[in-house]
Every structure is written in C-alpha cells, then in structure tokens.
Amino acid sequence: MDSPQSSTWSLSKNLFYLFILLSTNLLTLFISTTLYSSCSLTSTVNIPEVINDVTNTQLPPEFIDFTSPKDLPFGWNSNFDSDKLYPPVGSPCTLFPDELNRYMTYQVNGSCPDDELLAQKLLLKGCEPLPRRRCRPAASPEYVEPYPIPKSFWSTPSDSSVVWSAYTCKNYLCLINRKRDQKGFDDCKDCFDLEGREKNRWVDSKTRGGVDFGIDEVLEVKKDGLIRIGLDIGGGVGTFAVRMRERNITIVTTTMNLNGPFNSFIASRGVVPMYISISQRLPFFDNTLDIVHSMHVLSNWIPTTLLHFLVFDIYRVLIPGGLFWLDHFFCVGEQLEEVYIPLLDSIGFNKIKWVVGRKLDRGPELQEMYLSALLEKPLNNSW
Q1: Which of 34, 130, 144, 169 has the fewest CB atoms within 10 Å around its CB?
Q2: Residue 219 in contact with residue 380, Cβ under 8 Å?
Q3: From residue 361, how far is each of 279, 325, 329 by CA, in Å?
Q4: Average pLDDT of the chain, as a whole number
Q5: Could you tell me if 232 and 245 are in contact, meaning their C-beta atoms sit under 8 angstroms apart?
C-alpha cells in the first residue's frame, strides 16, 4: 500500500504535467492567431503589396504609372495568357531611386529634360530597357536633313543634326580631330574621321596582316546571296554596316553614345543604329540572322559568365549555317588558353578561320593577344 507522501508526490507530478500541456496548447493558439494570421487564405493583408507600398514611396509616380499592370481593353487574351499587360523595365531601375526620380520627373505631354547622359548612365547600370516617358525628346532647333544615299555613306553630317550637350565635343570637326588634339581615352577615338582609318576598314585585308579579315573574303565562305541580314555588336560609327550595305546586305548596328553621338551619326549615314548595351538580350528571334560581327567590344573587360551568356545569345539568333565573325577579340596571353578558347569551344560553333596575333599598341610588356575568328553555327544538328 502506498504511503500518503508518495500519493501526494504523484498528484503533484500529474498537476505539473497538466500545467505543461495546457501552457503548450495556449502558446500554440497564440502563435497561430497572431503571427500566422497574415498568411491565411482569408487574410486581407497582402505581404507583397506591403513591400511594394514601402518601395513605391521612393519611386517617382510617373514610373509607377508606367510599370503598373494595365488591364487589356478586351479582357483575357490567349496570346498573353493574361487579362493584363506588364510594361517591361530593367529590374535594377529601382536600385537607383535618385537617378530614376530625375529621369522620370517631367511635364507629361511637354518637353523631356535634356538628360541623355543621365539616361545612358541608368541604362549602363542595368536599368535596361529604360521606362518609356510621355514627353518629347530634346532635338536641335535648326535640324538639317541628312544627305541622300549613297552620298550619306561617306559624308560627315551637319552639326545641326545633333544635340551636343552630353558630349565634350560640340561639333563634328572636334570629333574628327580629337585623336590628334585630345588627351586621355575616349571610345573609338578616331572613328568619326571618315577620311582616316574608317576609309580602309575591312578592305583589302591582305595588306594588313593575319588578324585583319576583309569583308569580301568572309562573304566568299558562303554562296552569293546567302548572307542577307545581320548584326554588328558595338559597331562604332556604322562603317561595317555601310560596307555591307554597299554589297546589298542589311546590318543593324548596336552602339552606345560614349562621349560621342554614335547613334545619330550611324543614322545620318543611312544605316540602322540600335541603342542597347552588351548586357541586353539580343532583340531578335531564334535562328533568324545570317551573320553577327563584333570588333574589339567582346573582350576580356566583360565578366566571363556574362560573356558566356552573350556568345550563346549570338548562337541563338544565327540561322543554322550562319556566321559569327569575332573580330580582334583581345586578352592577356594565358587567358586565351585557360579561359576564352574553352569558352568558345563550349558553344558549339564550327571553326572556319582562327588567327591569333600579338596586340602591341599598348606595349609588348602587357603580353596582350588578338584573336580573330570566323565561326559557323552547324547547318545540321545545331540544337
């Protein structure tokens, strides 16, 4: 028979366990009705909306007005798989609220600020595409029409065709002479001089050395008429596109306006500029272009992973049998063997021409190398 003391101990122990059980249940109920209530199916609180509300307080109203979802006038659309349209902008736009605020602050239906430099800085930071604006862009008050084709191909356009506020030079004569007169680095420093090196680019390659391919020797790789349309990435002032136009081939030229009106100059020559950075996905459908060319731009200054994505994007837009002309790619000697040849080999191109030479313009001590290559997307089994 149990003693009174042991019975008292058993009762105390049972009451303790009961207290623990009740406390645990009450704690669980409290947590479930407070912390988890905002995640329940019937909750009226939308967490993403709260986050957006906080973010939107830092963003200009015109930006929010453009980027917010828009109801389609006729409701659900099977092509969109939605009843709304979502205007695209580069996701990093919101990382730079001060610059974005300046860019998107203007009078609706009025004149845009003269802010080309601000817009380009935003774009190069990854705010690409830039948001659309509801204002009229800055333009020269005394605009002069370009020369007719073919005179426009090799003529310097009027100074009045450009808004010069974003550039160090304020006329084309300054740009033509800046290689001689201006100290420091500028992108494509001598490109605007159409009577200088531009006059002989990609012509008569045999007089200029192994890494300099000529347009005609490249076109000979394919039957006449098979190279019809293409793209030049980072094409300076559009001379490659002009050379191709003279051969009845249409080339779109991508370029930025790095301290010079490259896009305006290209358009004045009568070929098509495209204002996108090397980070942007190429705005062409798969298997559509006959040739893609790039000179100097695709080189070791680009982060390796980004370059890998970019070359695969070039492969994507080329037709089976299309050509990728990698023109004067440069890097340090050991990088070529260790990084860039394996990268190019991984894409799946066939090698038609492959020439390596030394890059000596900045001195032999840097041990820089050029690679010029003509690569072909396989005609069959390119997938």
Answers
A1: 34
A2: no
A3: 27, 22, 14
A4: 86
A5: no
